[in-house]
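=== RUN LOG ===
request id: a7f3
mode: sequence -> structure
chains: 1
length: 99
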Amino acid sequence: MTSRSLLGILALVVLGLLLWELRWVMLALFGAVVLAVALDVPITMLRRRLPLNRPLALALGGVLVAAGLLALVLPDASSSEPPPATGKASSTRRPGTGA
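=== RESULT ===
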Protein backbone atom coordinates (compact mmCIF):
# COMPACT_ATOMS: atom_id res chain seq x y z
CA MET A 1 0.00 0.00 0.00
CA THR A 2 1.51 3.27 -1.05
CA SER A 3 1.37 6.46 0.95
CA ARG A 4 -0.84 8.02 -1.72
CA SER A 5 -3.58 5.38 -1.40
CA LEU A 6 -3.32 5.50 2.39
CA LEU A 7 -3.82 9.27 2.28
CA GLY A 8 -6.85 8.81 -0.02
CA ILE A 9 -8.44 6.26 2.32
CA LEU A 10 -7.76 8.50 5.31
CA ALA A 11 -9.36 11.47 3.49
CA LEU A 12 -12.47 9.39 2.72
CA VAL A 13 -12.78 8.30 6.35
CA VAL A 14 -12.43 11.89 7.57
CA LEU A 15 -14.99 13.06 5.00
CA GLY A 16 -17.41 10.35 6.12
CA LEU A 17 -17.00 11.32 9.78
CA LEU A 18 -17.49 14.99 8.91
CA LEU A 19 -20.69 14.24 7.02
CA TRP A 20 -21.92 12.12 9.93
CA GLU A 21 -21.32 14.98 12.36
CA LEU A 22 -23.09 17.43 10.06
CA ARG A 23 -26.05 15.17 9.30
CA TRP A 24 -28.61 17.59 10.82
CA VAL A 25 -27.24 20.45 8.74
CA MET A 26 -27.45 18.27 5.64
CA LEU A 27 -31.03 17.33 6.55
CA ALA A 28 -31.96 21.00 6.96
CA LEU A 29 -30.38 21.82 3.59
CA PHE A 30 -32.29 18.98 1.95
CA GLY A 31 -35.54 20.22 3.52
CA ALA A 32 -34.85 23.73 2.28
CA VAL A 33 -34.37 22.47 -1.28
CA VAL A 34 -37.58 20.44 -1.10
CA LEU A 35 -39.49 23.46 0.21
CA ALA A 36 -38.06 25.70 -2.50
CA VAL A 37 -39.07 23.26 -5.24
CA ALA A 38 -42.54 22.84 -3.72
CA LEU A 39 -43.10 26.61 -3.56
CA ASP A 40 -41.86 27.28 -7.09
CA VAL A 41 -45.04 26.17 -8.89
CA PRO A 42 -47.54 28.18 -6.79
CA ILE A 43 -45.30 31.26 -6.91
CA THR A 44 -45.03 31.01 -10.70
CA MET A 45 -48.81 30.73 -10.99
CA LEU A 46 -49.23 33.72 -8.65
CA ARG A 47 -46.83 35.79 -10.79
CA ARG A 48 -48.80 34.90 -13.92
CA ARG A 49 -52.05 36.16 -12.39
CA LEU A 50 -50.71 39.24 -10.59
CA PRO A 51 -48.01 41.66 -11.73
CA LEU A 52 -45.57 40.91 -8.88
CA ASN A 53 -41.83 40.54 -8.81
CA ARG A 54 -40.46 37.27 -7.40
CA PRO A 55 -39.53 38.43 -3.85
CA LEU A 56 -42.95 39.98 -3.32
CA ALA A 57 -44.66 36.90 -4.72
CA LEU A 58 -42.60 34.70 -2.38
CA ALA A 59 -43.57 36.84 0.60
CA LEU A 60 -47.25 36.72 -0.37
CA GLY A 61 -47.05 32.99 -0.97
CA GLY A 62 -45.41 32.47 2.43
CA VAL A 63 -48.18 34.43 4.13
CA LEU A 64 -50.83 32.39 2.28
CA VAL A 65 -49.17 29.09 3.20
CA ALA A 66 -48.82 30.15 6.86
CA ALA A 67 -52.48 31.24 6.97
CA GLY A 68 -53.55 27.94 5.45
CA LEU A 69 -51.52 25.95 7.96
CA LEU A 70 -52.90 27.99 10.86
CA ALA A 71 -56.45 27.40 9.61
CA LEU A 72 -55.79 23.66 9.60
CA VAL A 73 -54.06 23.53 12.98
CA LEU A 74 -56.11 25.93 15.10
CA PRO A 75 -59.54 24.76 16.26
CA ASP A 76 -62.69 26.44 15.03
CA ALA A 77 -63.19 29.42 17.37
CA SER A 78 -66.81 29.99 16.35
CA SER A 79 -67.93 26.62 17.70
CA SER A 80 -69.65 26.85 21.09
CA GLU A 81 -69.49 23.10 21.72
CA PRO A 82 -66.90 21.84 24.17
CA PRO A 83 -64.18 19.66 22.68
CA PRO A 84 -64.87 15.92 22.70
CA ALA A 85 -63.72 14.07 25.78
CA THR A 86 -60.66 11.92 25.42
CA GLY A 87 -60.00 8.80 27.38
CA LYS A 88 -62.12 5.85 28.37
CA ALA A 89 -63.12 7.13 31.81
CA SER A 90 -65.69 9.56 30.46
CA SER A 91 -67.59 6.92 28.49
CA THR A 92 -67.91 4.30 31.25
CA ARG A 93 -70.69 4.38 33.80
CA ARG A 94 -70.14 3.51 37.41
CA PRO A 95 -72.75 1.32 39.02
CA GLY A 96 -74.64 2.91 41.87
CA THR A 97 -73.86 6.52 40.96
CA GLY A 98 -76.95 7.11 38.82
CA ALA A 99 -74.88 8.37 35.97
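=== NOTES ===
The mean pLDDT is 83.
Residues 37 and 82 are 41 Å apart (CA to CA).
=== END ===
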